[in-house]
Design brief:
Elements (H helix, E strand, L loop, with lengths): L3 E5 L6 H9 L3 E5 L11 E4 L22 H16 L4 E4 L1 H9 L4 E2 L13 E7 L3 H6 L2 E6 L4 E2 L6 E7 L4 E6 L4 E4 L11 H11 L3
Parallel strand pairs: 1-2, 1-3, 3-4, 4-11
Antiparallel strand pairs: 5-8, 6-7, 6-9, 9-10, 10-11
Amino acid sequence: MRKAVYIWGQMEKYANYRRAVETAGGRAFFGRESTGQAERWDALLLPGGGDLEPWRYGQENTASRNLEPERDAAELELLAEFTAAGKPVLGICRGLQAVNVFFGGSLLQNIPGHSAHGGADRLHSVRTAPSSLGRLLGEQALVNSAHHQAVDRLGSGLQAVQWAGDGVVEGLCHRRFPVWAVQWHPERLEASPAGRILLGGFLEMVP
């Protein structure tokens, strides 16, 4: 049976995530409910999107944009449910930032050199430390980049396991919970097998 992955929001907005999950062997389900979902679904995926409200990590807004307050509240509630249930979570781009904030971390509100360029993702290599992600992706991988924010202070229990050449954190794992997060976009990475491998490994975390 295909593993059921819940994504908060409308399917039309996240069609590329649905295709990527299905290609990896799962099924993506969408909705705007944020309570009682860990009982229904096998895993949670937090997709990319606008920035989180800076007050949620103790800062004033200096460079955050495209804020999504309703989504912030819903995804943080879902994170609480799925981690309490011990079910796998994968954060992608904004999703990595949501994971870090949920566990008490903070963000850099604007960094150079990582946003999309000329309407396309940037491609760059990352170094991955020995970890569950490292076993999947190897020490070096080619990934894509389309973000202007990044991890600052790590959240409690999180371990940085992947970095860009300039030191920006590109991947996180939780030391206790089955939680992974990457700053890049596996759902639209066509130049490297890293995206397909990551999503397949995420689904394999489901018992």
